[in-house]
Amino acid sequence: xxxxxxxxxxxxxxxxxxxxxxxxxxxxxxxxxxxxxxxxxxxxxxxxxxxxxxxxxxxxxxxxxxxxxxxxxxxxxxxxxxxxxxxxxxxxxxxxxxxxxxxxxxxxxxxxxxxxxxxxxxxxxxx
Length: 127
Known about the structure:
Layout lengths: L1 H94 L4 H8 L3 H11 L6
Helix pairs in contact: 1-3, 2-3
């Protein structure tokens, strides 16, 4: 009977030691889980910050694209005005009595353009 009691006592001590080791492991895993949760929380905050930043960048890119389109339109408009300028000068010269030949020489208009300006704005035009 003593042997049975001794074996039971050893089994109980072994079970107790096993439970103690199991408890320690559970505790260690609990700390690891807490550390992982903290890390996940930190990563989530970083991801949220990146997403917010991306929205701001997207808005800035849209603004830059809009500004680029506006500048392109303004440049095209200015180039168009510069290209129309010789006709304004040509009209003034014709109203002062210039010939089609002079318009070709001074303003670089084609002969047919110069003749058309003279016909439309020349001194012989009916007023």
